[in-house]
Structure formats: C-alpha cells, structure tokens
Write a structure and sequence with these properties.
With 307 residues, this protein is α/β, with parallel strands linked by helices. The chain has helices spanning 10-22, 35-46, 79-82, 97-114, 127-137, 148-162, 202-213, 215-223, 228-242, 283-306, and strands at residues 2-6, 27-31, 56-59, 70-73, 119-122, 142-144, 169-170, 173-174, 182-183, 189-190, 193-194, 247-255, 260-269, 272-276.
C-alpha cells in the first residue's frame, strides 16, 4: 500500500503526518520541487516511526511514485497567498484557478509517466475544476477532496449546537467545495431525527451555514493556512481507496449528469469512484446544486479558453 504526496507545504506535510498517524499506508513518498525540503520533512517524520507498525516514509522523484495506489497533489498557491480570503467575494477559491493550473501543467507530464493508473486525489484549491483538468490531461481515476471536509464541519457544528456527539449526526454538503456549496438541511438528522423541526431553527441554520462556508477563512486569519482538517480527510480517503472499503462519503468526482466534477455522496474503492449516489433534496436544494454546477462549468470553460 503505497501513497505519494506531491508538495511539502502546509497541506502536504499535514497530510503526511495524518497518513502516518492513521497508519494508512506501508510506504509514503514525498515529492517536492525542492528535493532538500522533501528529504528534511521525510527524515523528521522517520524518527517517530518506531512507535508505529512498519512504514517506509521517504523523499523521492516522480519516478518513485510508480506503483502508488494513491497520489495526493497538494502543490499550488493557497488562499492566503492568492488573496482568496474575502467573505464578500463570491468567486472565493475559484480565483486561484489560473495560477494553480500553471503549476499543474508543470507536474502532470511527469506524474502521468510515472503513475498513470494511480488514483489522483486533488487537494489544491480550487480542487473541483483542477480535478477536471487532471482528468482532461489523461488520468482515468481522479478525485477531488470535494465537500468531504465541508460535511465534517457541518456535522461538527450541528453536534456542538445540539450538544450531541457529531458521530451521531448525519449531514451532507454537496456541489462545489467553495462559496456555492449546498448544505442539505432537509436530510440532516441526529440518529434519524430531523434537525430542522420548526421556524425557531432559522437562526441556527444561518449561523451554522456561515461557520461552514467560511471556516477556511476563519482558520487562515489565525494560522495562515487551513491544513489539518483537510489533511485528516485526505488520509481517510487514501485508506478507503487502498483498502477497497467501498465506503460512502461526499467527494468530488466527474459527474456526467452535470458535466463537471462536483461532490455528491459516492461509493469509493480501489479504483477511486465506484458509484455516485444522489440523495433526496428539496426543490430549493436541487436548484442550488444546479447553480453550483453551473459555477463549476464556467470555471472549466475558463480552463479551456486559457489552454
């Protein structure tokens, strides 16, 4: 069980640590433009490995990714550096697209030579249109981290407000991992009991929507980068793939119905996407999902025009 991580920045390093702590892989390769940094990061983490079952974590070049079951891509300009931290800007993460496309153009030719059959997990913002770019480049098994983390945030905030364990909360965010994402309140449950049971919950709804949509900006304002939550989610996705768990999680994948990569609950296994499931939605939520898809289709069109 081999995982590659491209990028030794905040998200890449946090993902490496999460992979180690979750014992997700037998071999982990970190690739970075600055090979010296990749070696330093891998060496630092090597010294903690005697506490865990055997795992080989080391730096490498693209050729060392051959045979990897999963390759995470965590390189690129982040929201802080790219100026995507304005809560009033509806573009959000999509404003980073052109800059990060240029970076992906540098790494993908090397990656497809080394690991054409790996499941590629895009973590760079904005992950959904970047996943479409990776897919158009020729990779067959491409996932975006999508709204997996957003859904975890939704569950966390609902659990905290309702004073219950978030593990018992069922709540999904679908669509774009970004400002047009859709929180499915109509199906939010606590052990099967609907969360919204009256108009008195409208204030709760508005408050939680704000916390979930802008969680990344809140984190960045205090810590420069949103890295640990996405890293833990990425490690969980990797082990689902490596173990062929066929778990159902909200994740970004190309959806022919919408003509773009977006998130819906999906079965995930060793081939990456196994099957997309479409949950019941209210008419308002379905319309919001279509608007989110249109936002992403417009972003993909920008990629094609820039090519």
């Amino acid at each position: 069980m081999k995982v590659g991580v491209i990028g030794a920045g905040a998200v890449g390093n946090a993902s490496l640590l999460s992979l180690l702590l979750r014992r997700s892989a037998r071999e982990i390769v970190v690739v970075n433009r600055n090979r010296k940094k990749a070696k330093a990061v891998a060496t630092d983490m090597q010294y903690g490995t005697p506490m865990f079952p055997p795992v080989d974590i080391h730096d490498g070049d693209y050729s060392d990714l051959a045979g990897a079951g999963v390759v995470m891509i965590a390189v690129g300009v982040n929201e802080k550096t790219g100026g995507a931290t304005d809560r009033n800007d509806p573009v959000g993460r999509l404003g980073l697209l052109e800059k990060n496309i240029d970076i992906y153009k540098e790494i993908l030719p090397q990656l497809i030579k080394a690991a054409p059959d790996a499941v590629i997990l895009v973590l760079t913002d904005p992950p959904d249109p970047l996943a479409d770019f990776v897919r158009q480049f020729g990779f067959k098994r491409v996932l975006s981290s999508g709204t997996f983390l957003d859904s975890l945030r939704f569950r966390f905030h609902l659990g905290r407000r309702l004073n219950v364990d978030p593990e018992n909360v069922e709540a999904l965010v679908v669509g774009e991992h970004g400002t047009s994402e859709v929180l499915l309140w109509s199906s939010a449950r606590v052990s099967g009991v609907p969360v919204l049971r009256g108009s008195e919950n409208e204030q709760l709804r508005r408050s939680i929507e704000h916390e979930v949509r802008f969680a990344n900006i809140t984190i960045i304002e205090g810590n420069q980068a949103s890295q640990y939550g996405i890293a833990m989610a990425a490690a969980r996705i990797a082990e689902i793939v490596l173990r062929d768990e066929r778990s159902v999680i909200p994740i970004g994948a190309y959806n022919p119905q919408y003509g773009v990569t977006l998130s819906l609950p999906s079965i995930v296994g060793k081939e990456g996407l196994v099957e997309i499931l479409e949950p019941e939605m209210s008419d308002q939520e379905r319309q919001a999902l279509e608007r989110s898809a249109e936002t992403l289709r417009a972003a993909v069109q920008r990629i094609k025009q820039a090519a």
